[in-house]
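Typical record is below.
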Amino acid sequence: MKQVNVGIIGFGTVGAGTAEILLENREIIRKRVGLDIVLKRVADLDLVSDRGISLPKGVLSNDSNGLLNDPEIDIVVELIGGMTTAKSFISTALKNGKHVVTANKALLAEHGSELYEIAKKAGVNLAYEAAVGGGMPVIGALRDGLAANNTLKIIGILNGTSNYILTRMSKEGLPYEDAVNGAIKLGYAEDPPTLDVNGTDAAHKLAILISLAYGVPAPFGSIYKEGIDRLTPEDILFADQFGYCIKLLTIAQNLGDEIEARVHPAMLPKNHMLANVNEAFNAVFIEGDYVGPTLYYGQGAGRMPTGSAVVSDIMAIARKIKSNADKTSSPLGFADSEGQTIKIQSIKNLKTAYYFRFMAVDKPGVLSKISGILGERNISISSVIQKGRDADGAVPIVMLTHEAYEQDVTEALAMLDKLDILKDRTMMIRVMG
């Protein structure tokens, strides 16, 4: 075989970037792979919008079925996103004996097990480097580079939109809504950016990383997620005074018989290697039992970074086709994981330190009342900051605790928020040690 033919479904931002890289870097790709990779078809409903790239005549059409059933196409690239239609396209391509490359993190996180099984039965590859971290090669790192290790810990900043919003709130003191509107105007966020700011996008990516780390599809619904929409510039300022910054973190940890898996805002020590990951950039810290700590950093989204990751998968599959040996590999990188399952630890059993911000009425005995209820639930206080009253007459009382169990914290805050000494719902942020 002298060439591998590629068909792309979806000619939006990432599809156009993928096509541009395949066309503009065709010669260097050929030299690296040892055969020609040809963009044979591109299918999209929109045939008129300018994508800033000129495709060869006859390549672009709205005939996705023709692409999926074209016997000359070896690799199908799905870049339309979403669940139903994308799942149908990928399933059809796999069953037709075509290798598939996708960037669809939501589909893989929620329905990956079904697609992995189809790929296995069809004897073809399903690759998805672009699904997590854009241009960062974190999928390849977990599946190949760190394959000899037992993964102990994954901590990531995996949503560029939320990271950009928190950066603006931190550097400029912007309220949450103003920072969101700025992100939308610059094109970093959808309008509204619900899946980004409520933790869903990051949780999808964490599910994929956990699946790769342990060789079994992670139960997405069991991953705890919480967004950034309640954070205020005041919380960021208080965190700074305690020596922390606030990031939306994806966290997974191997506990032996369970996996800790959670997505939420967290206070991170300023000297942590993730603390200075700002703007729309992503980063992932992975610790293996033998390799130790490793860090991956880069642009987590965008036309060219994500397109670069897509093309890397295309090239990897082309090399397998060229070798004419075993052309397939397990989508999760484990040859033997039949019958295994992943148990996700309940968030109630989490033990960590906490930040609380109470908006209390200005009268004697309030602090002792709050401390008493926390003490009843085995929550001890390590630091306290009390500021002057705000315009509504409420006094912010800010605390850091020693390690406590989440269930105890939840019960204590439920009791406190019912008291008339507090004027607003308590802000709680978990603290990374």
Summary: The chain has a mean pLDDT of 95. The first helix runs from residue 13 to 24. The chain has three domains: 3-135+303-323, 138-299, 350-431.
